[in-house]
């Protein structure tokens, strides 16, 4: 496994296993158990996924030392704010059954982001979080947070896939020492990604699957990825991306697929801001 060194010196695996939309507790626990068996040591969850408890059970039952696993969870915007962030983080620790997390992210760039960040800075300094970061922060919001905070985010987890390549956002992150992380690396199959002629051509050239090509493409761009699957064979396939490399032509061809647009939601759309702000999870 290749690791990425974050801006505070913490080492983070470049490839992780995500559990978004695996809400059934038994299924989630089984999936994390299988992923750990494949070799994943980076698990990404969130309070809003409503599966932290299942993730924690799988980690404890695995017998793998806690220090060998990189664990990420996230703060949902219903808990934005200084005091509420402290309480939400404590609740996440209880559900996960651990006394620290490796990475804690602000899940959405709305609400009292600055109050949340102050609380996270304190939790980080207390050693309860090894690194703090954000998710879904567009370049302007990210830079504003950096300029008005003591601790620069270590990671910004954003939608990144062949059709939304985030070139400008990644350039800004690199300028400020923030590591980009991809959610939705396969675009959830949108735009018929798995049957895209360009991706199929590159996959055939290397004797790999489209999924492996996409993950390798992200890896060669130094972008952390957290693919999700409930199928053991896919988990293993997604993990097997370090035995080949894409050449300059491959990278150029995949770059041509970029539309520069989100396939999910626009965080600058007032209607989307209103919609997100109304989402309240029973967590």
Structural account:
The chain has 283 residues and is an alpha/beta fold. It has a single domain, classed as TIM Barrel (Alpha-Beta Barrel), CATH 3.20.20.100. It contains 11 helices and 10 strands. The protein has helices at residues 25-38, 52-62, 82-96, 113-125, 139-147, 167-176, 197-206, 210-220, 232-239, 248-255, 270-278; strands spanning 3-5, 11-13, 17-18, 42-44, 70-75, 103-106, 132-135, 155-159, 179-183, 224-225. The longest helix is centred in the first third of the chain and has 15 residues, at 82-96.
Strand content: 5-15%
**Number of strand elements:** 10
What oligomeric state do these chains adopt?
single chain
Q: What is the level 1 CATH name?
A: Alpha Beta
Domain module tally: 1
Structural class: alpha/beta
**Cα Rg:** 18 Å
Strand-and-helix sequence, N→C? Answer: EEEHEHEHEHEHEHEHHEHHH
User: How can the largest sheet be summarized?
Assistant: 8 strands, parallel
What do we call the CATH homologous superfamily?
NADP-dependent oxidoreductase domain
- Distance, first to last CA: 33 Å
Which bin fits the share of residues in helices?
Answer: 40-55%
Pick out its properties.
single chain, 283 residues, TIM Barrel, alpha/beta, 10 strands
């Amino acid at each position: 496994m290749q690791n990425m060194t974050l801006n505070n010196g913490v080492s983070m695996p470049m490839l992780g296993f995500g559990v978004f939309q695996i809400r059934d507790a038994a299924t989630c626990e089984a999936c994390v158990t299988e992923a750990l068996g494949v070799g994943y040591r980076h698990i990404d969850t969130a309070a809003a996924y409503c599966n932290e408890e299942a993730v924690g059970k799988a980690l404890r039952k695995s017998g793998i030392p806690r220090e060998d696993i990189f664990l990420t969870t996230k703060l949902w915007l219903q808990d934005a704010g200084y005091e509420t962030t402290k309480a939400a983080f404590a609740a996440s620790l209880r559900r996960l059954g651990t006394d620290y997390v490796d990475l804690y992210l602000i899940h959405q760039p709305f609400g009292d982001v600055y109050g949340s960040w102050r609380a996270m800075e304190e939790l980080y300094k207390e050693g309860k979080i090894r690194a703090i970061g954000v998710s879904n922060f567009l370049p302007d919001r990210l830079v504003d947070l950096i300029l008005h905070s003591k601790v620069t985010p270590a990671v910004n987890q954003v939608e990144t896939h062949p059709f939304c390549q985030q070139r400008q956002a990644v350039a800004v992150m690199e300028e400020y020492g923030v590591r980009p992380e991809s959610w939705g690396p396969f675009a959830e199959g949108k735009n018929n990604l798995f049957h895209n002629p360009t991706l199929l051509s590159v996959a055939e050239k290397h004797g790999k699957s489209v999924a492996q090509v996409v993950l390798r493409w992200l890896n060669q761009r130094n972008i952390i990825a957290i693919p999700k699957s409930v199928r053991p064979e896919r988990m293993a396939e997604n993990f097997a991306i370090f035995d080949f490399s894409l050449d300059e032509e491959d990278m150029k061809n995949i770059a041509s697929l970029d539309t520069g647009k989100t396939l999910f939601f626009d965080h600058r759309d007032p209607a989307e801001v209103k919609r997100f702000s109304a989402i309240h999870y029973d967590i």
